[in-house]
Amino acid sequence: MTVRRMAEIKLSAIAVILGCLIHQAEAIPPPPQHLRGPEINITETRGSLLQCGAYRHWRDNNSEVYLGKRIRGRDYCEVTMSTNCSITYEPITCPDECPFFVPNHAFSCLFSCSSRENCSKFNPIRAFADKKLDVCMPCRVPGCSSCSNLTHCDVCHDKFFLEADGQTCTFTADKNGRWSMIVNVVGGLVAVLIVLGLIWGPCCPNNKFEKVNMYAIHRARRNRHLTKTLQWEMNNKRSACSFHSLAFNVHIKNICGVGIGLFYNNILFCTGVAVLLWVATRWAYDASDVVAAMGNFDADPGDLYSKGSIPGNGAPSVLVSRLHVCRGKSADHVSRVIYAFADSNFIGLGVLWVVIFIALLAFTSYQKKATERFNTANATMADYAIRITGLPTDETDEADVKAWVEKIIHDTFPQTFDRPPETVDMGRLQGDTYKERARSKIEVDGVSLCYSYLDKWGQVDDALANYTMKLELEAAQQANQALDEKMREATQHMKLLRKLNKVKHSRRNLSVENLGGQEMLEKHESEAKALVSEMFESEDPAKRIKTNGEAFVIFNYSDDVDYIWSQLDAYGRHDMHPLNNHVYQKPGTKQSSETSEKDKQKVKFVYVRSEPVSVNWWFLGQPQSTKKVVQGVIKILCLIFFIVVVPMFIYYRKILKPYAALGTDASGLKTTIMGVILGFLNTIVGIQTWMTSFDAGFHRRENMDVMVLLMNVLTTAINLGITVMLIYRQAYSTTKHTDPIKSLTDISSFEVLGLENEIAEKIYMMMMPGFFFVGNIMTVIMAGAWPWILNNFLAKVVYVWAALPRPLLWALRPIVPWAPNDIDFLPLWRAERMLEPMEVQIGDNANLITIPTLCSTLLFVLSSYTHLLMRDMICWGIFYYGWLRFMHLRFCKKCYYTTNIVDNWVNYLWGVPLSMVAAAWCQWGFRSEATFFVNLGLGRWSRLLVVGSSFLISMIIWVIAYTKIVKPWTPPPGKTEEDQLTVAECQEHIFYSWYNCNPVFVLKCQYHWWDSKKEAFNDKRRKKHPIAQGEEPDKVRFYSVGKEYLFLAPSRQYMAFPDYRHEGLPGDFLEFETYLEFGLNALSCVPLFFQLAAKKLRGQPAKLPEEANPLLSSNANATATASASGAASSSAAATA
Asked: Which helix (H) or strand (E) holds 953?
């Protein structure tokens, strides 16, 4: 036998053992006869090694095999062919028409045969056709479409510009220099303003109201601490308020209403759902042998070249990749593994849907019971009130309405009731004693009318703000007088003096000048009196204020409210009860016989669920309009489309898509700028969503919160949906032969599985750690520290330093939040609102819906990242629970959520992630080729329609089940705990009431009922009706968050201030403002120290200027001045 013949036999043996490469769409004809050696037994050689070769279709066990290493024919050019990763690429040779071998971008075990010009068409990063190896290799020039060698580019991809040196492909937008120009222009403007400010500020005179405005800024910083979620106590003689512990039981204790506890319950349930998802996906993944097969999808194609090995019992010269999955396992085995996973996933998702559905029913029932437990354990103002409708709109006398309501109630329910004993505080030593109360009829405490004043809303708001500042001034003067008196009395008692030394820093330096001067105070006072006089005393009926025909009737005991409702419920239909069949008649008058039936509107009693702090009093005069709500929703949708969708689409088309065609992600300055722009646009959408929901005219804050919740869920879903869609488009843009629609319900291609794994990886990297953790942590900076620093700086630039020319200051003024229409004087109340923190947001409920929904998108793909994402969602749920405790208890402004209305809507929205599981179950039914789904015989679009229909059916089932089984809208039962309290005693715990939350009623008490000349209330007007008050029964107070200390006696208000509660520190050690203020105070002391020391050395009087700490009076500054003088003396002595 000749040497040539022996070589041919060896080549044939190698070809037989390597296996065959088969075209995807057509069977390849048998190999040429001249490559077959008679010494080789083909049948015996077709063992396990042959089955580990290349296949036309990875699950097609009947494919013909090609027993040679060269693929012949133009029909095999530029099509995707596959191996099962059992062999290296080195011995595979492509046809002469397309001689270059191109590994697939999605899965390294797929390849194509290409011509030199089309290398990057099938794998965009492989633009260099290596003629020595006949392989398309990665080009070292990013963005290159065709390379002449590894470092020189001939042609760049679309949207990329080839530089003259041929070694760089520059993105078109980068080439034009637009992004650098934007940065340079903005940076240049900022630099010019800084330089101008440094020159202008020292050379030109400061604002004439510099000290006054600086005081306002310092007061605003202190007020920011007082707006946090504090526990206020009116009847505690040793403390006024304190922070809640981060371990505080928010589930049952009342800090901001029942909504907060329900929100935290939702976080825990979301974490439980994440556990279920992780268990189900992990079980489906581990129940099959898919782990080994899926490991190849993350493999580097270079491994198929460099890391081959010779099997121990194989034919000579056979190179087997370390990625091989065969080793006795054929491609048929891989097929069975994938389909076993599909079967397991199909069963697991079906069971998971049932488990989550049952868990949801149990959880929502628990939420309803939790609401009942909360109402039982906590006294709230809603327990003492009933809303009545059908009053005349021109009736504005609360005392008359109270007398009439009490009369008809006594006529309907004449019996008397036992009353709980009165609690009398006898001091620390004797404790509490109880005094029996006599039996009485149902007691009406008062009435709070629903005034219609939307046209005067701005005037009423300004009048209340100025009146609050007036109360601040009076309280400061009274507190300073009381402190001076105690200091004089304590000079003979050192123990008492030491105690008073601890509170002497609470002396307040608030003067008339800080409020704009006596003339401005008198102007505000006269404007408020004129406004109230016009509303209640005008001779022109058209100018008098009216109501919307409704009022809140406040009872002295919550037992009375429960009894009335029990009688109405027992009657069956409330509208048929005798109590609801009266027509209002003003006491002391007779019903006119000429009154038409239309005017004889019957008064109806309506259940009250909201607290007075949750009532939008300014909208009560306007009927709630569905038209306004629809218009608001359309406006928000348009904003989302034009501000979110359109910019995102442009960003994708102009930046992301060109890079996606390269198989890479965009980066650099352009993505940073676009990220900032998109973040800013999303912020605008969020603000406009809140403002549009607010302008819809809801009478109750909870209804507005529902609209905000739904729009936030929609906005977040659109943002995340677009992001996921772009990830899909980027992944599928690298392949030319895969149908994205068909691949959703078909797993018969390695390329599809590779793309799905790539998509899952990108979604995982997007969520972890960015969306899960980084975004929440950045909130402290972007919504806390940065606005605090920026607003302080801008306020000082405009209102303290006047550091720029006046035209530029007028240009900066609109940027300052709550800035007045003036650049000289900054009102104190506007400064306080300027620095207020963001409110407690249970609109974060949107995250509890959108995050599980987004994570559920990975249920539709086969990837190891699915169960990893579910695992990390568990970690996020635990983190989110603790993080929001910090945010709500130390970071945010206090805000009330006093009903379970928002929670009920969140429970409805839980049907979205539940339905995602149902849709994934249906999809895997098609993929696993379950008998029922196969028998349907549907095409690709019909299958997609069935998957979408399963989502809708699941959603409908959940909505019906929740509504019919849980019955979320039924009112809670009667109360027990607060039955021992009167409405006045309840106010001592929560400070607000139906009186002091009603803006018009507060102004009426102060400027219509109060006689400033006699320094007493006008009994003819008041008629002994309760007023809006605090701890002092004859002082009118308006409730607003952060001003609770005004409800205390002036001599006790210092107990509420942060520097007293925290022993000299600006705030609590968990508040970031504490450290910022501490740093600013330290910096401000450095120049003052040297200034005072220099004066002392020159023999001049060293006096600490009041603006160093404007919250302290000159007396309180004496100590600091002495310290600085002493330090200067010591320095002078040392110098001598």
From this structure: helix 940-961
Give the number of other CB atoms < 10 A from CB of residue 1106: 17
Residues 927-954 have pLDDT tens digits of: 888 777 777 777 778 888 999 999 999 9
Q: What is the pLDDT of residues 775-825, one digit of tens each?
A: 888 888 888 899 999 999 999 888 988 888 888 889 889 989 999 998 989
Distance CA 869, CA 772 (A): 10
478 by Cβ neighbours in 10 Å (0-12 / 13-18 / 19+) ranks as: middle
Helices (H), 79-177: 119-122, 172-176
| Helix/strand/coil for 583 | strand
Q: Give the Cα separation of 76 and 359 in Å (integer).
A: 54
Residue labelled with tokens 């024919």: 73
3-state secondary structure of 1011: strand
- CA 694 from chain centre, in angstroms, equals 18
Q: How far apart are the first and last CA of the chain?
A: 115
- Using CA atoms, how far residue 239 sits from 766, 939, 1111, in Å, is 48, 73, 21
| 582-583/602-606 β-pairing | antiparallel
User: What does the alpha-carbon distance between residue 255 and residue 249 come to, in Å, rounded to a whole number?
Assistant: 10
- Asked if residue 407 has pLDDT above 50, the reply is yes
Q: Does the pLDDT value for residue 3 go beyond 50?
A: no
CA-CA-CA-CA torsion sign (1023, 1028, 1030, 1035): negative
Quote the tokens at residue 581. 């069949």
Amino acid at 844: D
For range 390-395, the mean pLDDT? 91
Regarding predicted confidence, which is higher, 1029 or 363? Answer: 363
The alpha helices in 962-1049, defined as continuous H runs, are: 983-990, 999-1004, 1019-1022
As a whole number of angstroms, the distance between CA 290 and CA 297 comes to: 11
Give dist(CA 685, CA 751) in Å, integer. 39
What contacts 1133, CB < 8 A, 6 or more positions away? Answer: none
The pTM assigned to this predicted structure is 0.82
Would you state the structure tokens that stand for residue 68, as one six-digit string?
Answer: 């040679």
What is the DSSP code string of 882-920? HHHHHIIIIISBP----SSHHHHHHHHHTHHHHHHHHHH
Q: How confident is the model at residue 31 (pLDDT cuts 50, 70, 90)?
A: very low
Mean pLDDT of 821-848: 88
* Mean pLDDT lowest among 630-639, 664-673, 993-1002: 664-673
Quickly state the pLDDT bin for 1098 (edges 50, 70, 90): low
Segments of 655-706 assigned E as strands: none
The pLDDT score that the predictor gives to residue 62 is 33
Averaged confidence pLDDT in the chain: 78
The span from the CA of 441 to the CA of 556, in Å, is 11
d(CA 915, CA 853): 9
C-alpha–C-alpha distance, residues 321 and 49, integer Å: 12
Confidence bin at 39 (pLDDT 50/70/90): very low
Is pLDDT above 70 for 71?
no
d(CA 512, CA 212): 10
214 three-state secondary structure: helix
Residue 242: which H helix or E strand, with range? Answer: strand 241-243
Closest by Cα among 537, 541, 912 to 716: 912
Is residue 101 classed as helix, strand or coil in its secondary structure? strand
CA 1107 to chain CA mean position, Å: 39
Give how far the C-alpha of residue 540 lies from the chain's centroid of Cα atoms, to the nearest Å. 49
Identify the pLDDT of residue 871.
94
Could you identify the residue written with the tokens 């089309």? 118
DSSP per residue over 438-469, as a string?
--BS--EEEEEEEEE-GGGHHHHHHHHHHHHH
- Residue 159 is given by DSSP the state T
pLDDT, average across residues 448-468: 92
